[in-house]
Give the backbone structure.
Amino acid sequence: MSTENHSPESGNQKEAVIPNHSPESGNQKEAVFPNHSPESGNQKEAVFPNHSPESGNQKEAVIPIEATHAEQDTKHDKSNHREKSEWHMRGWIIVFVCLEAVVIIFYGFFVEPSKQVDVLTADKNNLLSQDLTKQIYPIYQDIHVMMLIGFGFLYTYQYRSAWANMSFNFFLLIWVIQISILLVGFFKMMVENHWGKIYIDIRTMIQADFAAAAVLISLGGVLGRFNIGQLLVMATIETWFYAPNLAVGEVSYVAIDMGGSMFIHTFGAYFGLACSLVYSWMEEETVKDHEHNKASYTTNLFAYIGTAFLWLFWPSFNGAVATGNAQHRVIVNTVFALTGSALAVFFLAPLKSHGKFKMELLLNATLAGGVAIGGTCDVLAKPWSAILVGFVSGILSFIGFEFISPCLQKRMRLYDTAGINNLHGMIGIYGAIVGIIVSAAATNTEYGPSLSIIFPAIKDGRTFSLQAQMQLAALGTTICFAVVGGLVTGFILRIKCCFDGAPKEEMFSDLPFFEELEEVNGKIEVEGILVKLPPPNNQIIEHPPLEERPIIHIELQEMNDAQHNGVNK
């Protein structure tokens, strides 16, 4: 490789930097020339900083080349798109402020503190308030950690959009907490036909986190493809569909779903998938193989932090609204189900990957037990049944990631960015089916005095067979609400005059959203990455796997000699 005798006819070049190389230490770096377009013949500029022939350090050697008319047009288009995006963002800021003003007004008229937090009755209910805080607030903290750190870090696996994914996760969490209290309270009063104020305490805040969990699950289906305005609209519409579905399921059907297998996981997954399906159909080309839609060693390590927090605190999520012995049973069953799903993944992953593990499976499928046991975590009375439910869910999640997702992508152009169907969608349906079977098979002898707590409608004369039918009806209603809401949202978000969707080159990237990254826009910082030679013009090369590619070591001293001698290395 030489920086001399370069022909401008070979195409435009940009900069690739090899930092921190020391000839004395013998360290070698590997350079990558990414983002090369075979059609335009564009290549990158090679820069070797701080190296001089006298000292052994070489100064920057830049190979300038004039931009072609095609590249100038591309830059002009990008500049116009950025300017248009800035105006769209300013418009969305106005929308944000107006919506927040409406929320504040509604809170002022319709939301009141409960007796435990009301300043006028604080003295009378002091002991009750203290007991409630001691019992529930630690669980509420656990759920909050799951939403913010669990989902947030799990979504950082994309190496070019980790900042945006975590920030949008935070934004949707705080927005849905506010609006879900209003919407869930309104629709429950409508279904009950009992109107009044919405009273809030810690238990209300837990329900708000549950609504946020459904939206954050949907976020995984469109991760990296929507801007903040589109996500605001998606979250708002989804909460409008989530609230009536929850009210119908809990009030009309009196369905049991302690950990949200149906109302949270199934709903969130299929809302996000339906929205993604419409968006994928209208995209000019698939984004599956997008150059930025990849994970790195470091980002997967951060994503594992999210998985660890979700795995650790999932028992609190499932048992947050349970009481007494039922809450104890929920925690035990959830832990056993999580161990079952995790073991299933560790057993199965090497069979498909030539004796090796696959990080995508370890980050996601290991959590399937927490989703599956949600519908029956307070019902199952024996530990072996919880382990079995979890183990089967791990197998189903493994099959989803390895076989079902590629099939849906190929046959339907349904691109599921974070695999929410494999962790939340079909596993949530599986958990709901387990709940239907358990409800139909329940007996008074098996549950004794706990029966009326587990199945509230049974004490009012409902049979176990009818309870199972109501569970099935709740599952069907949930899927209908989710799919219809997702399809409607997907079509709305494709309205060009209202929503400025990101072009393909800006998807899965932090650059359009953060000022700190503007200075490196369009540049790649190389830190000892493998050289990826540009393919010939008008020719597409299928690159071999990483371990099969030749590694090109560059000695700076040899390159210096080559420059003086005019020899290409």
